[in-house]
Amino acid sequence: MKFFPLIFTSILFLFSCKDPGIAKRKAAQPEINPRSSWNAVAPKAFATHVPVRITVHHEGTKLLATDDAIRKIKGIQTWGMGPDRKWADVPYHFFIAPDGKIYEGRDINTVGETNTEYNPAGHLLICCLGNYEEYEVPEAQLQSLIRLIAWCSTTYKIPAETLATHRDFSKQTTCPGKNLYKYFESGVIKEGVRKILGK
Ligand SMILES: [Zn+2]
């Protein structure tokens, strides 16, 4: 009789997987470097939200794969929380460096920040470090972006179909830059995500 609870739990588990709205496969978690890796300070008081869509940005200033991404992220936090912006934390939930490394940004359940007119409530914000109006996106960064989007989609139950970029919501910016945006226009990113999710 002592095996009965195990069998019962297994049956429950099987039924819980039969949700037609969820992707066929759960994306593997890519390596995400924690806030401590870039010496984050604790956030200030923040507004909470539930992310329902994924929105991609570039940071907009030059950063090459050989440059110091950690210093860049720390600088964004110091500036953003300072007198210029008075933000609660870094503006984005994740950063991806040109070398493909992924870094944890602000708490996923907090509303991000923006310098433009759109309201970032409900948006899970991913920022590719670098300027993709001027430079080409390194392959390692593009592949990490696809993996991170897929993982965020299954982990936070956000349909991959919601994937968009900053400029899709704001007339005030070209973010994420034409050289990153072209991968959204061509479908390369959505196709990569679909492949991981088995859709
Ligand atoms: Zn942006």
Short description:
Helices cover 31% and strands 11% of the residues. It has 199 residues and is α/β, with parallel strands linked by helices.
Write up what this structure looks like.
This protein is α/β, with parallel strands linked by helices. Helix content is 31%, strand content 11%. The chain contains 5 helices and 6 strands, in the order H-E-E-H-E-E-E-H-E-H-H. The protein has helices at 4-16, 69-81, 139-155, 178-185, 188-197; strands spanning 32-33, 53-58, 94-96, 102-104, 123-128, 164-165. A 6-stranded mixed beta sheet has the order 1-4-3-5-2-6, with helices on one face. Helix 3 (139-155) crosses helix 5. The longest helix has 17 residues, at 139-155. The protein binds zinc ion (ZN). Residues 57, 166, 173, 175 line the site of zinc ion.
The strand order across the widest sheet is: 1-4-3-5-2-6
In CATH terms, what is the fold-level topology?
Lysozyme-like
Largest sheet: 6 strands, mixed
> What's the Cα radius of gyration?
18 Å
Overall pLDDT metric: 90
For the termini, the CA-CA separation is 40 Å
Low-confidence stretches: 1-21
Tell me what portion of residues adopts beta-strand conformation.
5-15%
Helix percentage range: 25-40%
Number of strands: 6
Say which CATH homologous superfamily is assigned.
Answer: Peptidoglycan recognition protein-like
How many helical stretches?
Answer: 5
Order of helices and strands: HEEHEEEHEHH
Number of domain modules: 1
The kinds of small molecule bound in this structure are:
zinc ion
Sheet/helix structural class: alpha/beta
CATH architecture: 3-Layer(aba) Sandwich
Shape: globular
- Mind telling me the CATH class? Alpha Beta
